[in-house]
């Protein structure tokens, strides 16, 4: 049995903080179903006559469906490339005994401490030169590059922690590096891949900076860019403004609530050992 | 390694296999390396070069040496904005460090114990971190609205009407309020990182301390906290790097100029206005100057990271 802080104290503190966390989210959800008048009269209660007017207006003017598809497209392609490229590189960094792999490891890890945004001006010039500006393809390579430091860091650490016998046995059987990668490394890496995926998914899905500087065209807007434009347009009409925010937050929030156990486990499992 | 096929000339076979194997490893590294160099390392280095040029629009072509930096520090127009943004960024970071990370450590200590409802609290505490920064910023601007926002309504209802303020319209308050909003969102992240640290500390060690008569408080400060030091360092450096290029929350709550009256202007908003959007009212970007601001941010970050590396090395040498 592990003695710890008094139960009552724990519950009290955590309940107060949960209230602080949930209160704004609650207000967002209930108020998006109220008219402007009802919001100002009673901002915290359940909606007396729930209305979807705000949501309808937003979906009508904003092409929100398109923004969602765009964001899903960018997130899926970037994430799968990060996991694929990252795990391949991590395998080499962990198992290739040479000076080059040591240097490259440091080179990748350095990116953890240097935000890619500092390179924005050059990236913008590069995208203009490649004629990718205003397309979703301007975002994808940047997100993949952005994911490389964390992917190589978490995955290399994980592969190094695996017992060597596993690889040696496969080698004796004459398996090539590719076979070892596909049939041993990838299945074992699953928890670490989940950590990287969760981390990068939150980052990519919510990124606002790169869409803001690369994209103007309606057809290439992502959710966060759409939110900023629509919120600016609606900020005096609270019902619509809140509907915009709720629409953009809900899918991810629901996904999180369903998978929260796996989320937290994934995040704590891949963390660095103290 | 240990297994060598029987061969007349092992030396030659070994070296042929060695180069072949190197080739395979390089192929494994190639895709990651190519994207990383082309879209991150390369542009970062080229930004340093760009800071030595001037010219308007997206193709600064006139070489001016260090003139951009000299302007940034001595031309009153630039120096005022730059030092202001730097100071505000430091305040923004300090509030995150003291509020968000202290709360995170505290919550993680509570959540590492076993009790009913623990999973619920873990889920709730991390929840805001899954919202987009932009949505959080916009949501809180509505909640902090001086006339209709929930915060002032609550203060009025509990008889503290005098405390009700135009939170985001006050030059003294805006930056602090925005920092606290952002800390509200991110507290779950250090919580999860510290939680992982707590769960890594062996049960036996804690048991032993209890057997020796230590209570929860002493155990925390004497045993768990020292063992968590590497995680504390990591959280600190990640907070530092994240906050020194924070943009979204300021943009959402105070606009690209850090209103009111530049009181919430940070390095990233200054960088955005200078290098990308162009300063009001002309709207013509000055990429060379923007690159100088990025380079200065880079230098500050590197200094911080090197200090952290120095201390974390010394710490691991001590253990």
Question: N-to-C terminal Cα separation of chain A, in Å?
Answer: 23 Å
CATH class of the largest domain in chain A: Mainly Alpha
- Provide mean pLDDT of chain B, rounded: 87
Oligomer: heterodimer
Low-confidence stretches of chain B: 1-7
Tell me the number of helical segments of chain A per DSSP (H or I, 4 or more residues long): 12
CATH architecture descriptor name of the domain at 89-272 in chain B: Orthogonal Bundle
Distance between the termini of chain B: 34 Å
Helix share bin of chain B: over 70%
Q: Could you spell the SSE succession of chain B in H and E letters? A: HEEHHHHHHHHHHHH
Largest sheet of chain B: 2 strands, antiparallel
Q: How would you sum up the global shape of chain B?
A: flat
**Cα radius of gyration of chain A in angstroms:** 23 Å
For the secondary structure, the number of strands of chain B is: 2
Strand percentage of chain A = under 5%
Q: What is the name of the CATH superfamily of the domain at 89-272 in chain B?
A: MetI-like
The percentage of residues in β strands of chain B lies in under 5%
User: What average pLDDT do the residues of chain A reach?
Assistant: 88
Description:
The complex is a heterodimer of chains A (274) and B (319). Chain A is an all-alpha fold. Chain A folds into 2 domains: 7-54, no CATH class; 63-234, MetI-like (MetI-like fold, Orthogonal Bundle), CATH 1.10.3720. Chain A is built from 12 helices and no strands. Chain A starts with 6 loop residues before the first helix and ends in a 5-residue tail after the last helix. Residues 270-274 of chain A have low confidence and may be disordered. Chain B is mainly alpha-helical. Chain B has a domain at 89-272: MetI-like (MetI-like fold), CATH 1.10.3720.10. In chain B, 71% of the residues lie in helices and 1% in strands. Chain B has a two-stranded antiparallel ribbon. In chain B, strand 1 and strand 2 form a beta hairpin. In chain B, helix 5 (133-143) packs parallel to helix 11 (248-254) and helix 8 packs across helix 10 (216-243). Chain B is flat, with a radius of gyration of 26 Å. The model of chain B is unreliable at 1-7 (pLDDT under 50). At the A-B interface, helix 1, helix 4, helix 5, helix 6 and helix 7 of A face helix 1, helix 3, helix 4, helix 5 and helix 8 of B.
């Amino acid at each position: 049995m592990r003695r710890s802080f008094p139960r009552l104290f724990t519950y009290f503190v955590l309940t107060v903080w949960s209230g602080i966390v949930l209160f704004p989210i609650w207000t967002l959800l209930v108020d998006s179903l109220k008219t402007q008048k009802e919001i100002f009269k009673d901002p915290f209660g359940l909606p007396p006559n729930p209305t979807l007017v705000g949501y309808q207006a937003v979906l009508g003017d904003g092409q929100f469906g398109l923004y969602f598809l765009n964001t899903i497209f960018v997130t899926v392609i970037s994430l799968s490339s990060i996991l694929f490229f990252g795990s391949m590189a991590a395998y080499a960094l962990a198992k290739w005994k040479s000076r080059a792999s040591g240097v490259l490891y440091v080179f990748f890890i350095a990116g953890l401490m240097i935000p890619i945004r500092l390179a924005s001006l050059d990236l913008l010039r590069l995208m203009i030169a490649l004629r990718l500006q205003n397309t979703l393809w301007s975002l994808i390579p940047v997100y993949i590059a952005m994911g490389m430091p964390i992917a190589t860091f978490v995955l290399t650490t994980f592969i190094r922690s695996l017992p060597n016998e596993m690889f040696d046995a496969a080698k004796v059987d004459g398996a090539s590096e590719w076979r070892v990668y596909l049939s041993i490394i990838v299945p074992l890496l699953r928890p670490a891949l989940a950590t990287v995926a969760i981390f990068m998914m939150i980052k990519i899905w919510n990124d606002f900076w790169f869409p803001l500087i690369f994209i103007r065209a309606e057809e290439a807007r992502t959710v966060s860019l759409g939110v900023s434009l629509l919120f600016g347009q609606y900020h005096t009409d609270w019902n619509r403004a809140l509907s915009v925010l709720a629409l953009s937050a809900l899918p991810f929030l629901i996904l999180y609530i369903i998978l929260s156990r796996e989320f937290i486990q994934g995040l704590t499992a891949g963390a660095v050992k103290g | 390694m240990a297994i060598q096929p029987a061969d007349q000339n092992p030396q030659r076979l070994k070296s042929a296999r060695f180069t072949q194997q190197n080739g395979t490893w390089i192929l494994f590294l190639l895709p990651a390396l190519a994207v990383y160099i082309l879209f991150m390392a390369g542009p970062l280095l080229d930004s340093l070069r760009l800071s030595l040029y001037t010219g308007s629009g997206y193709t600064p072509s006139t070489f001016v040496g260090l003139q951009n930096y000299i302007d940034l520090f001595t031309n009153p127009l630039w120096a005022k904005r730059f030092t202001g943004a730097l100071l505000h960024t430091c305040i923004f970071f300090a509030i995150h460090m003291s509020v968000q990370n202290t709360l995170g450590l505290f919550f993680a200590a509570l959540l590492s114990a076993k009790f009913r409802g623990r999973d619920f609290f873990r889920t709730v505490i991390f929840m805001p971190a899954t919202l987009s920064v932009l949505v959080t910023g916009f949501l809180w601007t509505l909640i902090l609205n001086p006339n209709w926002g929930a915060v002032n309504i609550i203060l009025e209802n509990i008889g503290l009407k005098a405390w009700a303020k135009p939170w985001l319209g006050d030059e003294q308050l805006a930056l602090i309020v925005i920092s606290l909003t952002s800390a509200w969102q991110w507290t779950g992240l250090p919580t999860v990182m510290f939680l992982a640290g707590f769960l890594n500390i062996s049960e036996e060690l804690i048991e032993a301390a209890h057997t020796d008569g230590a209570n929860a408080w002493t155990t925390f400060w004497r045993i768990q906290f020292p063992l968590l030091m590497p995680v504390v360092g990591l959280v600190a450096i990640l907070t530092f790097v994240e906050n020194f290029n924070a943009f979204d929350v300021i943009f959402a709550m105070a606009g690209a100029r850090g209103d009111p009256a530049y009181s919430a202007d940070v390095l990233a908003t200054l960088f955005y206005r200078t290098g990308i959007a162009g300063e009001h009212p002309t709207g013509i970007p000055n990429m060379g100057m923007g690159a100088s601001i990025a380079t200065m941010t880079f230098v500050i970050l590197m200094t911080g990271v090197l200090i952290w590396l120095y201390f974390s090395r010394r710490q691991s040498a001590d253990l």
